[in-house]
């Protein structure tokens, strides 16, 4: 069975809405891509980490996130961060005694520019 790519573009300006909106969109798109249940928990954990920290590094108070799924996995692209915000966002996901949540849970964390972060979670 082939699953096409599904994608949602979010721009959230109210910080308190980011976590519930992002987690619902991630859950919906992951379900459409037939994400295994154990990886769904990981996808929601990544969404929570992004939602908790991205507003602190946004350029103008708004957080832009693209959520994309295909049959192989889920991508989160956090964009339009302030200069150097991408590295700061990744560093902020560090928890004492746990380590960096983004880097431990995701299969890939990339900082393609100083204002965006790409997180990839494979479903395999």
Helix share of residues?
25-40%
Distance between the termini: 15 Å
Strand content: 25-35%
> Radius of gyration, Cα only, in angstroms?
13 Å
Strand sequence of the main sheet, in spatial order? 1-2-3-7-6
pLDDT under 50 segments (min length 5)?
none
Give the count of structural domains: 1
CATH hierarchy, class: Alpha Beta
Secondary-structure class: alpha+beta
CATH architecture: 2-Layer Sandwich
CATH topology: Heat Shock Protein 90
Characterize the overall form. Answer: globular
The tally of strands reads: 7
Q: Give helix and strand order, one letter per element, not per position.
A: EHHEEHEEHEE
Secondary structure elements and pairings:
Layout: E1 6-12, H1 15-32, H2 37-53, E2 63-70, E3 73-79, H3 85-92, E4 94-95, E5 99-100, H4 101-105, E6 108-113, E7 116-122
Antiparallel strand pairs: 1-2, 2-3, 3-7, 4-5, 6-7
Helix pairs in contact: 1-2
Describe this structure in words.
39% of the residues lie in helices and 31% in strands. It is α+β, with helices and mostly antiparallel strands and 124 residues long. The mean pLDDT is 94. The chain has a 5-stranded antiparallel sheet with strand order 1-2-3-7-6. The chain has a two-stranded antiparallel ribbon with strand order 4-5.
Feature tags:
alpha+beta; Heat Shock Protein 90; 7 strands
At a glance:
This protein is an alpha+beta fold. It is 39% helix and 31% strand.
């Amino acid at each position: 069975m082939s699953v096409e790519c599904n994608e949602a573009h979010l721009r959230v300006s109210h910080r308190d809405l980011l976590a519930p909106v992002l987690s619902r969109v991630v859950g919906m798109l992951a379900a459409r891509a037939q994400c295994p249940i154990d990886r769904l928990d990981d996808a929601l954990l990544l969404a929570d980490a992004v939602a908790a920290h991205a507003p602190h590094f946004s350029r103008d108070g708004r957080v832009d996130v693209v959520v994309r799924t295909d049959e192989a996995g889920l991508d989160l692209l956090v964009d339009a961060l302030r200069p150097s915000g991408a590295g700061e966002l990744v560093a902020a996901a560090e928890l004492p005694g746990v380590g960096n949540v983004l880097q431990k849970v995701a299969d890939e964390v990339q900082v393609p520019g100083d204002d965006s972060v790409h997180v990839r979670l494979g479903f395999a």
